[in-house]
Amino acid sequence: MTSSVDVALVMVPPFIPDEPHLGLALLASYLRGNDFSVAVHDMSIKLFHSCEEDDRRLWDRSAATAIEWQQRDLRESFFKKYWNNFDAYIDEILASKPKVIGFCCHITNSVLSMEVINLTRAKAGPDITLVAGGPAFFVNESETTGVGYELCMYGHPTRGQAELRHALETWISKLDCLILDEGEAPLLEVCQRVRDGEELTGVANMVRCSGPGEYEELTRGPPIRDLSTIPYPTFEEFDLSLYTRPQVPVLFNRGCIKKCTCCVERYRWGNFRARKAEDILAELKHHVEVLGISWFNACDMLLNANVRELAKLCDLIVAEEMSIYWGGNVVVRKEMTPELFGKMRAAGCGWLIFGIESGAERIVDLIGKNFTLTEGEQNLEACHQAGIRTYINIIIGFPGETEEDFLESMEYVRRNRENIDWIILMAMFELFHHTEVVLNPERYGPRCEDVAGLTENFGLVDWSDETGNTYEVRQYRFARMQRLLAELGLPDPTMQGDDLRLSQVRQELTEHPAIHSMIGAALEVEPKLDLPLTEALEGNLAHDEEKTRAGACRLLGMLGSRKAVPSLIEALRDKSEWVRGESARALGLICDPTSLPHLESILTDEGYAVLSGDMQLSMARMRRLYEASRDVTEFEQQQDAEDQ
Asked: How many Å apart are CA 245 and CA 512, to the nearest integer?
């Protein structure tokens, strides 16, 4: 019998299958900390595993796939094709009798969320409060609604299109409310009012619309200033065995200290707020000790926004002797010294993404980066010398960029090649709402008529300025930069899927053979790509160096190398406790039935208590599959079908 809950939180497809959604996990912990019972329903990861193999490409994180999801034919055919799945997911949610159901909407899943919410309302009736929120929604000033604003949704263009706006506002009326910006405080107030039988009118940062053009007044409220009042996410509402990488997201800070003229994130997040190093450490320790997770994806806009707390966190991690792997976005700063990069590396930092954006000083100044390119080169060199994978972002065609500026960018990449592992994001500049470039086009250069034509459907790609910076020019420059990267031996930032993962793995195993880099490389590899690597890694299990044997175990586990199971079972008897622990963790990830008794015997050993979290998750899945099979052959057939 399904247990009842107060609140159900829902993620509609698609969301990347790599890791659970941090926003839902934060909301769940915040509500739970305020005495509400919560269930999380990740429809996206469930359907990813249930859909036809050819449809899994629709979970790709590329911009092209995101745009594809906005095509009416695709979303309607997809919803129809998997209608039975969605119907069953909604029945599962309603079976727990929640009083509030909240839907997380981002740019890619926003329009499909409309279909799912419509079906949920039809099945749930009027007694359950339906709420939506997330980065898909924002408001624009409007003189036609009577309240000074109108709601907009990325992926659903409505400006100047009365029929589409009517459809959007009709859909919004099926919701009891819609939450803007940070969701913890307003969602908690909504849940409290529903529990107490009170009206929802007047909740800060909440939009209500009873029909086309019929909005209630919008009251704006500040974001939560003290982040220590928000419990860290425990992910206890998620089945972590479903996600394709053994990692969870973390957040060191909220907001940004910069005011880049092309960025909308400051508008969404408000003022910068830092978390205390002690709070972040407690979160990381929980994930290692309870979940058995040691790889963390920092989702911050800038994880080095507060350098003092970052350095303190690294000291704490080193003092705790934690073996973890993490990284994220950073900004070039004078305070990022070689000593600090070395401290970060010792604390397990494995990769950093620098928002360089351009190799032309004039363009960097226009963007508002507030650093010099010389400082950028110093940061890249110090980062790379510390053994941290060094990535950068590049923007092609910022308003006002001339051919000379572009040539300077190409030269910057060429000059710093030995300190750049990958240009992880290379994008042609787009115009977005609420950015300084769009708010002041006369200052930055895009033609005012182009800005006036900007809809809410992502950004505007086809724009031009007086310097001759047109869409066609940007395409040509993009292709030239691609050729330069090929000449320099850097991975193509447009690569996706198997080609990209293989390129990253080859680079990692060649340039950074240390244990943490091997772990990072493993996370970029699909099980079907492990054949060229398995034999070499099995050979490393007999290496003299402890860290090499441990790294080989970890990598084999990440690869899902079932061929290596006998070797990993043998490694359980290694003289090194580290190697024994990594082999146990690897066998837990691979989920081969022959290793089940070995793993269960290890769990009785107090020395492996820290491993019990992820091993228990893996073994629970193994038992479910094993009990459903009469023999090992059937088990393997079922395992192969699941992997496909």
From this structure: 21
Domain extents in the chain: 7-207, 253-494, 514-643
Instruction: Give the residue from 122, 104, 123, 129 showing the smallest Cα distance to 45.
Output: 104
Distances 252 to 1, 175, 282, 298, 304 between C-alpha atoms, Å: 39, 32, 12, 7, 9
Distance from chain centroid for Cα 337? 28
Alpha-carbon distance of 384 to 416, in angstroms, equals 11
Which carries the bigger pLDDT value, residue 614 or residue 101? Answer: 101
DSSP code for 156: B
Report the distance separating Cα 215 and Cα 256, nearest Å.
31
Alpha-carbon span 245 to 526, nearest angstrom: 9
Q: Which helix (H) or strand (E) holds 331?
A: none
Question: CB-based contacts of 216: which residues, under 8 Å, 6+ apart?
Answer: 147, 201, 207, 208, 209, 210
Q: What is the pLDDT of residues 588-625, one digit of tens each?
A: 767 676 777 777 676 665 555 544 554 555 555 555 55
Express each pLDDT in 515-563 by its tens digit: 334 444 444 443 334 445 666 677 778 888 777 787 788 777 766 667 7
Token pair 């790379």 is found at 384
Q: Which CATH architecture has domain 514-643?
A: Alpha Horseshoe (1.25)
| CATH number for the domain whose boundaries are 7-207 | 3.40.50.280
Quickly name the fold that domain 253-494 has.
TIM Barrel (3.20.20)
Q: Where are the beta strands (DSSP E) in 420-518?
A: 422-428
